[in-house]
Amino acid sequence: MQNRKVSVIGLGIVGLTTAVGFALKGHKVIGVDVDDEKVAKLSKKECLFFESALCEKAKTADFQVTNDYEPILDTDISFICGGTPANSNGSIDLRYVQGSAGRLADVLKEKRKEHLVVVRSTVVPGTTEAVISPFFNGVGNIGVCVNPEFLREGRALEDFMAPNRIIIGESESKWGDVLVNLYEDFGSQILRTTMSTAEMIKYASNAFLATKISFINEIGNMCKRLNIDVHDVSKGMGYDDRIGAKFLNAGIGFGGYCLPKDVAALMKQAEIIGYEAGMLKRVLEINDEQPLRMLELLKKHIPVLSGKTIGILGLSFKPDTDDIRESRATLMVEALLKEGAQVRAYDPKAMANFKRLYPNIEYGIPQKVLESDAVLIITEWDEFRNLDYKNSIVIDGRRIDKAREALIYEGLCW
Ligand code: UGA
Predict the structure, then answer these.
(1) 253/118 Cα distance (integer angstroms)
(2) What is the mean pLDDT of residues 231-236?
(3) Per-residue pLDDT averaged across 224-233, rounded?
(4) What is the DSSP letter of 185?
(5) What is the pLDDT of residue 302?
(6) CATH number, domain at 256?
(7) Residues 397 and 262 in one domain
(8) Which of 160, 209, 330 to mutate to test the pocket of ligand 1 (most atoms within 8 A of CB)?
(9) Dihedral through CA 129, CA 131, CA 132, CA 136, nearest 10?
(10) What band does 124 get if pLDDT is binned at 50, 70 and 90?
(11) What are the angstrom distances between the C-alpha of 254 and each of 207, 219, 377?
(12) Domains identified in the chain, total number
């Protein structure tokens, strides 16, 4: 493997992981971001995310950070890693990706040698060809590829260093060859395909994971009525390796920055091309309905919530992160406040972020939360497996077995 000079544009989780990962592989890496504060913090080796392995390695990995695009001229490959947040209609906002591509094209005008631009941001099928590539038409000897990421929050660097697949969408095979060479020693299976196909693989993967979750939630909702344990159903299904055991945990549903946004964007794309993506629509609807089911179960035991104090255990969208984007907890808190209840919440890591959104609810230690009139379990943090639930009414959205000892216990789908 040849050591390359790599630039990474946009230093969010995806960009920083890409920069640190390639630096650890021995490549010369420059990370570029227009956010001065972020660059200053990263230069001082301060950690920006709740990503322990990434933060640890970012301290020692040999890579440069700058807000200046000019040094990119001295690199061979540039990864565009800017975020693609959701617009209110579900489509994605391309402003950061387009901004990066525009600035990059400006700098690369002066370049005579070959340069590869790689779109790593999550963009809907067809975007790179229609929107990003044109920035580089007629600009020197520039190629464009798509290389989606499949990093899980909380395990981003581990997933980067040991990927289960590398997808290379290439405009021409000579440009794909550059990426094949770069990823040569990752020991992972590589799929080479068109740019739009690579873009679709990213969306189809997240949409499938979301579908698996809504599917098992639908089965779980039936199991609850039939007095069947959905946990055993998942286990039994998972023994079939065509189905697989992962992502069959029924409960309050999926949140986070990726799954809900990507399914919505894919549906919007379907609408644009005149196809009705009915299954994806239902996947999101089921996901939105699960918190309402939790509210119904709570009301079964406490019919009038006004004036009652309801405890919430877990505010992050999944364990081991402080990220509350699209967290199920936000939906539950909204619903409880609407009913006139007081909310008392605890999360091991996400309380500071949640306080910014909800400064007026009460925050307290788990024991205090368990003294509320009833308690909802929203995130399966490990420490919730050791609490004393004996005197509480518990509605469990994540299946914490220890909570079954509660005075009254209701599982959401079991
Ligand atoms: C997801 C994908 O798993 C990554 O492969 C992808 O790279 C990433 O999005 C992305 O597009 O960048 P992430 O958002 O970190 O990763 O979170 P997941 O671990 O997928 O969990 C998403 C949500 O599904 C969480 O709220 C989790 O609690 C929920 N979930 C997961 C369930 O409700 N049931 C399950 O069985 C599994």
Answers:
(1) 33
(2) 98
(3) 97
(4) G
(5) 97
(6) 3.40.50.720
(7) yes
(8) 209
(9) 90
(10) very high
(11) 11, 16, 14
(12) 2
Q: Do residues 186 and 222 share a domain?
A: no
Confidence of residue 286 (pLDDT cuts 50, 70, 90): very high
Residue 1 has pLDDT above 80, yes or no: no
* Crossing angle between the packed helical segments 195-226 and 259-272, to the nearest 10 degrees: 120
Location of structure tokens 């690579």: 198
Mean pLDDT computed over 155-181: 97
Same-domain pairing of 131 and 236: no
Q: Which atom of ligand 1 is nearest to 246's Cα?
A: 36
Q: What is the DSSP string of 92-114?
A: B--HHHHHHHHHHHHHHTT--S-
> What is the reported pLDDT for 192?
98
Question: Could you tell me if 17 and 49 are in contact, meaning their C-beta atoms sit under 8 angstroms apart?
Answer: no
Where is the domain boundary, 193, 224, 250? 193
The confidence score (pLDDT) of residue 138 equals 85
Torsion of CA 95, 96, 98, 102, to 10 degrees: 130
Q: Is 303 exposed, middle or buried (0-12, 13-18, 19+ CB in 10 A)?
A: exposed
- Candidate of 167, 201, 258, 412 to mutate for ligand 1, largest count of ligand atoms within 8 Å of Cβ: 258
Q: Are residues 230 and 293 in the same domain?
A: yes
Residues 264, 166 share a domain: no
Q: Residues 308, 341: contact at Cβ < 8 Å?
A: yes
Is the separation of the CB atoms in 326 and 256 below 8 Å? yes
Is there a single domain that holds both residue 236 and residue 183? no
Res 139: pLDDT: 81
What size, in residues, is the chain?
Answer: 414
Active site residue 413: no
Look at residue 325 and tell me if it is in a domain. yes
What is the Cα 276 distance to its own chain's centre?
A: 25
Domain housing 387: 204-411
Instruction: Please check whether residue 321 lies inside any domain of the structure.
Output: yes
Q: Whose CA is nearest to atom 23 of ligand 1?
A: 254
Domain boundary among 193, 219, 243: 193
| 125 lies in the same domain as 174 | yes
Over residues 73-102, mean pLDDT: 96
Q: Is the pLDDT of residue 72 over 90?
A: yes
